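During the second year of the project, the team shifted from modelling isolated chains to modelling whole assemblies. The rationale, set out in the original proposal, was that interfaces cannot be judged from single-chain predictions alone. As a representative example for this report, we include one of the complexes processed in the last quarter. Its constituent sequences, exactly as entered into the pipeline, are reproduced here:
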Amino acid sequence: MKGVNIGEFEELVLLSVCILDGEAYGVTVKKALAEHADRYPTLGAVHATLYRLQDKGYLTSHMAGATEKRGGRRKRLFTVTSAGLEVLREARSVREKMWTLIPRLDTLGGAS
Amino acid sequence: MSESQHVPPSPRWANALLESFCAPALYEEIRGDLEELYAERCARMPVWLADLYYIGGVLFFMRSHVRRSRPSYAHARGLFMWKNYLKIAVRTLQKHKGYAFINITGLAVGLACCLLIVLYVQDELRYDQHHEHADRVYRVTALSHQSGTQWAPIGPPVGPALLQDIPEVEQVVRIFPHFTKILRYEDRVFEEQNGVYADSTLFEVLTIPLVQGKPATALTAPGTVVISETMARKYFGDANPMGQLIEVDGRDPLEVAGVMEDLPSTTHLPFDYAISMRTFLGNAEWAHSNRTWSGIYTYAKLRPGVEAEAMVPKLYDFVGTFYEGAMPVPPNEAATLILQPLTDIHLHSKLEKEYRPNGDMLYVYAFSVIAFFVLIIACINFVNLTTARGVQRMGEVGLRKALGAHRSALVRQFLGESVLIAALALVLALGLMVLALPLFNTLADKSMTLLSLVHPLWAGLLLALVLCTGVLSGSYPAFVLSRFRPVSALRGGGAGGSQSARLRQGLVVFQFALSIFLIIGTGIVLKQLDYFRSQQLGFDKERVVKVSLSSSFHQAVGNGQEAFKQELLRHPTIRQASFASDVPGERYSLEPIAHDGAQEQENVMMRFVFGADHAYGEALGLSLTEGRFFSDEAPADTSAWVINEAAARRFGLTEPVGEILRWRGYRGPIVGVVEDFHYASLHQAIEPLVIPLRPTGGMLLVRLQGHDIPSALAHIETEVQRIAPDQLFRYAFVSDAFDQLYRAEERLSDVFKVFAGLAILIACLGLFGLAAFIAERQTKEIGVRKVLGASAWSIVAMLSKNFLTLVLIASGIGVPLAYIVMERWLDSFAYRIAVGPGIFLAAVGLAVVIAFITVSYQTLRVAFTNPVKALRYE
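Output from the structure prediction step:
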């Protein structure tokens, strides 16, 4: 798919949603990013990205699960779409291909 | 997570904030997420920290524009729509040039008025603010308990004593007016009236920059003077005035020791030159010992941080010790020294013997109120006309709505239009201001320039004014017009029939009420002025001339005064001449007079004629009620008195002639009583007046008879110059001087006239627009009536009747209001006119006529149109 790009942070968020497998919403994605990627965005940044990804068609969402902890408010759960999976795979394959193209990988970056 | 753990509530205002800008659809999940995190945080960190995170989270959400409210509507960003709005606004204005003109002009006039008044108020409030230490400088005044009068000037030794005895006083300066003198340098001779004597400390207390000369030493030596730049140019041209000698009254040359910048007009103490106080007081014994004379203006600069209230007990003690032995009763019972802040003097001080008549805070308030009202009327007009016309734009409104414009967009469009018109009006107003400023300066007796407008504060004010006016005036039409349903709007349905018509009529009524009020006010002020001028004053004011004579004349005439008078009397038009010191129209001094034989030996303060010779009574044309005037045949008359009826009453004398009165060393019998005459303005009742025989008068009063006035004046001039060849011949008619007293009222009447005119103009503009609108709305109805046989005139009558009722209602408001206010104003005069119904009827009649004329153009036009055209009107 040409001309469809995804930012680095968007990619991480998208991956987190995949990892969370149906349990993904604002708070959990934020925690997942902290745990797996050592990134600490604000809740607002996470939400913004989730909505953006949804607008791009990589995620869908539905409302579910009010708990007492949230004062009776439901949460919006995101799941990845097939388009989303596609763009992730594409990104991954592009990176892997470029890695293999690097000559003399072990001598790169000076003597360690 | 433990369910039983109590979670504190999340910060309330953050939630309110979130709710206000978050899209409703997304609010629930966002808030829920925030709450969840908050609960977790509260478990592992202090609550306040969790609160901070929470608030931070909410604030972050504000940044991301996905959260904007109504995110599903895509608003046109940027300036796109405004270009269209501007185009439409300009086209609308062009299409209805008449209305646009009326609207803009009306608003411009209102703005110009308002701004001019603001300029005036700002000027008045600025008096004496330019002095560097203005907040620490006070004028020392004396309140006499016995008479209740507070004197602006005090005794000469008081100032230096204050400086010495009270440590809180940092510096003191004394100022004494240098009365009218003739100044001469080589061949340039002028009569100067604006000079003062001043201590050398003048420049330490007041801020008067010197162009030449040293402030510390300029006025230390006797015989030195500091002159203003204008004066320097007047006498010396371009030459250097320093060190030159100016002659005063033919003697006493003064050396120019400094040139000061011209004093700004905003000072209560204007002067053109200052002579060193040493010249005046020198080593005069009385200067150091005369503690109770109220003669010298004394200003004290207090040390930084000293409050005026702190001075009160100090002054009390000072009075106790300083005036010991100078008063018949313990000093603190007799008098109190009161400090007046320098900056308060111009607007709030009305003491006895002020340097110059001051302004009045009352006028500042009055003008401010007028400015406010004028602006309100103009804005009301604007609202009226815009709403009226706006109805015709319903088609446009409907179309825009049908194409998807939001109410907010329409509101913005109309507001933008009114702000644009306000801006145009402002430009026009500025132009009007420039044109009107000279007239305004004459009216307000000031010399203001528009330079003060260049200040950034003003630019900001103007901008705010434009925005406020535009928004305020435009918001009613904007909200009303954007409200209606597009479908009915496209069909051309009228805007809210009765209630908006009511409102509009109410506005017109208000404008006319105000106009009527101003018309009545003008009328009454004019009548009162006329009354002042025409009143019989009890002396022959029309025919008395006062001639000012300088000391060079008196030196030259020596004891030949009687002979000189005889020479004058040889002219047939001259009936009598008298040397006197006080003439009606000028301030008469207050002096303590005692009556021998009164139960308590107390001095009564009475108006006193310092110098009067035998002929004083006849020169003025006073009428006697008892006894006689001074006569040079009666030898005992050397210390006689003539008093007025008020004085006789004050002393409780039933048979005044023969009673003995005392003043300082002068003691003698009353020989005559004159009828009360108005020697002061008709503002006040006639106060007791005593006239001793002291032929020391410095001016000449001449009473004329017959018609040949110019030759009489020429004769006087010849005689005067025969005795003192270089005496400048200056004369004035007493009636003119008297009229000067009413300058305040004259100015008030001018102001009223101008504002009445303006109010009427603006009200007419409003009425004109309103009439046009209503007439047009009723076109169809009129067409039908005409077809059914109504004559054109009955149509006119029908249309006019509505407006006339409006005017009558306005009268019902304006007339009582005017009555109340003007009665109060008239009450402040001891002598005033009685207000009859005539003036009220005249004002109402005038208003009716004006309204009729204004409305008639529209009504006639409509009444005479072809009914066929009217019926086809859609």
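The longest strand of chain B covers residues 169-178. Residues 407-444 of chain B form the longest helix (38 residues).
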